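FORM 7B: Structural annotation worksheet

SECTION A. Query
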Amino acid sequence: MPHPAPLVSDIAARDMAERFNRPDFRAWARRAHTTGGCAQPIHLRGRVDHIDPVTGAVLHHYSTAREPGGALRVACKTRRASRCPACAEIYRADTYQLIRAGLTGGKGVPDTVTQHPAAFVTLTAPSFGPVHARRTGAGGAVVSCHPRRNGGTCPHGRPVSCTVRHSADDPRLGQPICPDCFDYTGAVLWNAHAPELWRRFTLAYRRYVARSAGLRVAELREVLTVSFAKVAEYQRRGLVHFHAVIRLDGPGGPDTPPPAWATHQLLKAAVDHAAGAVTVSTPAAGEVPAMTHEWGSQVDVRPITTAGRLTDGAVAGYIAKYATKAAECVGTLDRRIRATDDPANLPVNGHARRLIAECLRLSGLDEYAGLRLAEWAHMLGFRGHFSTKSRHYSTTLGALRTARIEHNQREHAHEISTGRLPFDDDRVLVVAHWCYVGQGMTPGEALLTAVLTGKPLPALDTSATAQGSPS
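SECTION B. Predicted structure
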């Protein structure tokens, strides 16, 4: 009689015990702390030599041969919380600081930026068919999802009404009331063109502000700068929408005040106009008709203040939270669809499966080849950047990372010097050679890392793609 397959917990427990009992466990644990509890560390092999360029003497030598498994583990630095909660938390904190600096100052931005008009803007997708939703009434109580007084059925024989008061964790949320009525083609193509809609929105926004001031767009740059930072968020129905901070500055960016006519009222009017004015057209292809894509009717513009409900800290925290997420809330994958994957067997819900299948179908049409829908099927067609900002909004993520690296180097650096006097040539030549040998951890290593560092435990993967330390 064959033995039953071991549970994931059993596999992880045995693997954890094996790692714990190895002679190099202490060195492995120190490296786990050094990576910040990264759940998908990158494995490198190589060496670093510090050489005196005058004498040729090797002042210091490092080799990964002394590391556990003969490889150095470094943090993956992903932004996706579904892949590595530890690295995503660093990305979230950096994004928070970036957004907050553009509203309150700091990180090279003057404190006077708080006096510049700024608003929190939300741009949504249009409807492609009714979906289950958790709705609340005026008093905050949960009300029926889609009540219809006369009821009835759709052309496919399904009820068009839903009187359920959905809970927050109801798996039906975001699912179409009738999947056959939902416009999957339109939804996928809208996701694919959402980045272009945003680009055209920013152009139309600047044109409206210039026209309101009696200026040409080229002349607007001499008196006013439109700064923004935005993040994309997936709704449960599988459509992206954008949250953005839009700020009006003087011609020198945050260092200069905007003109007196640049007010909150002008900022809101420009958003409302631009959101309703821009469209993107797609050609007909096969049985797919030509389409015109536009923003949804729900456009929200709220001024940001230093006190009240919508404060600078609340906005920064909200945007930073979504900077670490992708399409996971829709029930799709957080990796690309492989050529060997069968869409019918993917571990996704029915709605996400049909969106993925539509991406793959449309990718075979020549008219949509430039959209790369097959490559971005796991993102349901959206291939834009999740977090972007204009040049003058505030500091950059690169600057924040550089500052952190320099701080860590000062904290842990040991001086490597030729020993010659300061006024002599004391430069040290650094020669490094690295090669990539793998990524990830075994289930037992993931459990131990979570225990040692206090970081959240990612989803355990016992497939062949989960790599441990190279042997």
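SECTION C. Observations
The mean pLDDT is 87. The longest helix spans residues 184-212.

SECTION D. Sign-off
Analyst initials: ____
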